[in-house]
Design a protein that fits this description.
The structure is a single chain. The chain is an alpha/beta fold. The chain has one domain: NAD(P)-binding Rossmann-like Domain (Rossmann fold). The chain is about 45% helix and about 15% strand. It has eight helices and seven strands; from the N terminus they run βαβαβαβαβαβαααβ. β1, α1 and β2 form a beta-alpha-beta unit. The longest helix is centred in the middle third of the chain and has 25 residues. The protein is globular, with a radius of gyration of 17 Å. Bound molecules: nicotinamide-adenine-dinucleotide. Nicotinamide-adenine-dinucleotide binds next to α1 and α6.
Length: about 250
Amino acid sequence: MKPDLTDQTILITGSGRGLGKHAAIHLASCGAIIGVADIDGNIAQETVAAIVKNGGRAKPYIGDLSDRGTFEQIAADFAAQSGHIDAIINNAMLLRYSPVQDVDEETLSAMLDIGIKALFWSAQAMLKHYDKERGGTIINMASPVATRGFANTSVYSTVKGAVTVFTKTMAAELGPQNIRVNAVSPASVPTPGALGLNSKEEYEKRAAWIPLRRNGTEEDNSNAIAFLLSKEASFVHGEIFNVDGGVAACN
Ligand SMILES: NC(=O)c1ccc[n+]([C@@H]2O[C@H](COP(=O)([O-])OP(=O)(O)OC[C@H]3O[C@@H](n4cnc5c(N)ncnc54)[C@H](O)[C@@H]3O)[C@@H](O)[C@H]2O)c1
């Protein structure tokens, strides 16, 4: 059963494709008003068009969300629609793997900026635009790489480690202000971004060792996000919610 998210205003970063796009469409189908934020305007428009075609409500917001001023402006524009923001989903990320000796400064900075700095801008935006009575929710996207060593993922894993600790820190700091902060930790979903890192053959191999013997899906992830946003999850806070077929359990 889908949770009722009627009139919840939810800003989703990186929702032009992949997990963010699927979550945007799913949450809109639960009644939410979605801000589709992405650095790529064409794909953001496509997500909005898919939502509107289904009878949902969404608008595109285009910009580099690693930039503080851009994040602030997008959040302010989205909040202006209904006067507040109920939730921000920090989903945008630049996915790159390489051996540590090949990490170049430009890629490192770009990954740290969108993966880590943008989390700070989102917390600031939430504090500025949430309604204290309604409360706010932040959901970050973690990964099993945060807690287990995988070769050639040094930057990505560093980002996801930071996402995990930031989630817990914000739970301690923002909980008393009626803002719930959680993370979803998916594994092995062959999205467009992830397929740039891993081949289809790699996904077949993974399906053979993941305890539930399959890869993850976008639906798995969107269902978890919808639950964390629902009234039923009102006491779930500071949680790293593994949606990974058991990968993290086998660390
Ligand atoms: N796919 C998986 O198996 C998996 C597993 C664990 C965690 N995650 C996390 O889930 C999230 C989504 O993953 P995905 O596989 O859908 O990725 P993806 O690469 O398919 O999508 C990422 C989106 O973020 C946008 N983006 C990138 N940089 C941006 C910026 N600076 N400003 C605004 N938008 C920007 C991209 O344009 C893209 O639409 C990421 O945080 C990822 O780390 C994914």
